[in-house]
Amino acid sequence: MWKLKVAEGDEPWLRTLNGHVGRQVWEFDPHLGTQEERSLVDEARRSFSDRRFQIKHSSDLLMRMQFARENPHVTNLPDFKVQDLEQVTEEVVTNALRSGLNFYSTIQAHDGHWPGDYGGPMFLLPGLVITLYVTGALNVVLSMEHQREMCRYLYNHQNEDGGWGLHIEGPSTMFGTVLSYVTLRLLGEGAYDPQGAMEKGRKWILDHGGANAITSWGKMWLSVLGAYEWSGNNPLPPEVWLCPYIVPVHPGRMWCHCRMVYLPMSYLYGKRFVGPITPTIISLRKELYVVPYHEVDWNQARNLCAKEDLYYPHPLVQDVLWASLHKVVEPILVHWPGSKLREKALRTVMLHVHYEDENTRYICIGPVNKVLNMLCCWIEDPNSEAFKLHIPRIFDYLWIAEDGMKMQGYNGSQLWDTSFAVQAIISTNLGKECGPTLRKAHEFIQNSQVLEDCPGDLNFWYRHISKGAWPFSTADHGWPISDCTAEGLKAALLLSKLPSEMVGEPLDVEQLFDAVNVILSLQNVDGGFATYELTRSYRWLELINPAETFGDIVIDYPYVECTSAAIQALTSFKKLYPEHRRHEIENCISKAAKFIKDTQAPDGSWYGSWGVCFTYGGWFGIKGLIASGKTYCNCPCIRKACDYLLSKELASGGWGESYLSCQNKAYSNLPGDKPHIVNTAWAMLALIDAGQAERDPNPLHRAAMILINSQMKSGDFPQEEIMGVFNKNCMISYSAYRNIFPIWALGEYRSRILDSS
User: Fold this and answer.
1) Residue 277: CA atoms inside 13 Å, Cβ hemisphere, count?
2) Angstrom distances, CA of residue 171 to CA of 83, 199, 358, 407, 612
3) Measured between alpha carbons, how far is 676 from 99 in angstroms, rounded to an integer?
4) Average pLDDT, stretch 593-618?
5) I want to staple 550 with a disulfide (CB 3.0 to 4.6 A). Which of 307, 419, 511, 727 is the partner?
């Protein structure tokens, strides 16, 4: 059986700042578990597989089964279900909250965070498998059990038409289908299988034009593998890293995720690296194309992209740019004396690769650059210490559930979820019953704060200050983020108000000041807050976005979510420390509130860039304005936002928003107009803050009824449709949201609506 291990790491090639706090790694133990326990796991797997076309999202049952064994939980609370609004009483709500809190405390790890599935994208696992395959490490690093579960995951998320999507709930794309098919082949699956899944996948590829119509990221991976030619790629010249910073297209001015992915990609392109051509690769060359491999027009293929993948079509300026680089510049750079410049650029790129690796303890900012950096280190020196240090950190990204083993979109969402969980628990006014839970969460938040800036000249490495920040996941990861810092600070401040004998000693005041300093340093001139850094270049740079599948990736844009979180954190801080940098904080809040007002759409909505979608953006928009001192009565923006949310309430009560809202930028209900507990909770929290109870409390009562009736007997809440998003078009799982936000919404409802009435 599989076992989740938390805050462990005794391998010699692992580095850590804080004893691996937050690290979550699955290991297989053939001797673990009774026959009954193994049967339960098998049944969970069968059940998911049987319903995989109807329910695309796992319920994280393997983790829940493990915690049920380790933290047995018996509840004697009655299981209330309500039929009408009159039954939504304080007793019923309190019972639901106690049940939810009791359950949620049992799936908290011993280091204080809540582990969970942060999967969803389908293009992450293939990059790992391709990297391990070409380096010859696949069967050394991944056990047969790992490989078997990866195959299970890929088969489970194959669509009925034979293809695979960009993410688990998406329609089939060439990017998802080719990479998933190739991954299965590299993991040992034959071109023909008894169930016909491989044939269906291959048929989808060929029916839609063949692998030469894959996206640019897919072309790069296939080129590394040897199943596509580098001449069929648009150029990614590493020489751009030698340009002066003043040039608007300098990578240092791009969004850090963008530059950290294209950094190692440019090295691979500059090297034209190709892995060993094995019999499997030769076979793939025959399987993936509608014409013989040697007849593919690679020059034409450079700009080919299947219509199913084309979210961001290349503008004409991009086609001209790539053609010029391909036909004029590249021939110069690959021959002497231009090759000398190429060699210098490649050395510069590797300097930045190593800096990123070392300052994230070889976790890297995300899964894409993690495996790309690892591959670059191996190409530079197959026996290097850097490559060996990368290997154990692979497992930080792997997560297993009843649907199989996936690669997560980060090494987890530990700090983010824990900060929200603390705020949710405290909102219930039942915190005294959750002392041990809050104490452990407090310790985790304290242990996860970044205590130092990265070494060296930050300007040279294109890094922002990080001392005092909180990351999205763990301190070992260490990248500072504006809204994570804000939510971490909010949670720390709330905990500081509770008795230390219950939750432990508060964070040192200087560390609070450091967090405030990071937040203040991240405000842009327009008043908004981006994610990791200041917005460093211009919106028109999106014209050169080469990733056909994603939108808004080139620069770090300011977002309503990050801006609102900053306002809330600074407002909370100002109440406790009114004299610390008072004028700066007040000015920051004022400018940030103006940004939120300025970015509101005419219909009263805000587009949510990191959650689905307008309910998420609306929650942050309303909450940010209220934290800045605005009210429903004195702020037309809040009134418009409330009207917008109320207009989207379902006839049955509650809210249910589809991920299609994100990619289409227009509100879409879930199929069948079904409510979703997370959307319902977000809308509920926004409306409670905006004083909806004083005008018409019935939408809140209906929403509370939805949440109460959705709760399971155990106190858990069901996993419903996917609720996270990035870059407009790719969805990602936030599995903790199913517990956090219903508890938070019912907590606010109980303490601010029922208690006050």
Assistant:
1) 10
2) 37, 18, 38, 19, 17
3) 20
4) 98
5) 727
Within 10 angstroms of residue 583's Cβ, the number of other Cβ atoms is: 7
Find, among 177, 170, 168, the residue nearest to 200 by Cα.
177
| Start-end of H helices in 51-123 | 61-70, 90-106
Name the strand (E) or helix (H) holding 5: strand 2-6
Confidence (pTM): 0.97
pLDDT at 707 over 90: yes
Residue in 526, 520, 525, 411 with CA at minimum distance from that of residue 469: 520
pLDDT digits (tens, 9 = 90+) for 268-302: 999 999 999 999 999 999 999 999 999 999 999 99
Instruction: Judge whether 483 counts as a catalytic residue.
Output: yes
Q: For residue 31, which amino acid is it?
A: H
Query: 166-202: per-residue pLDDT in tens?
Result: 999 999 999 999 999 999 999 999 999 889 999 999 9
Residue 712 near residue 392, CB atoms below 8 Å: no
The string of DSSP letters for 466-531 reads -TT---SS-TTT----HHHHHHHHHHHHHHHTS-HHHH-PPPPHHHHHHHHHHHHHTB-TTS-B-S
Contact 532, 258 (CB under 8 A): no
Residues recorded for the chain = 757
Q: What is the pLDDT of residues 15-41, one digit of tens each?
A: 999 999 999 999 999 999 999 999 999
**Annotated catalytic residue, options 117, 396, 417, 483:** 483
Cβ–Cβ < 8 Å for 165, 171: yes
Query: Quick check: bond before 337 cis, omega within 30?
Result: yes
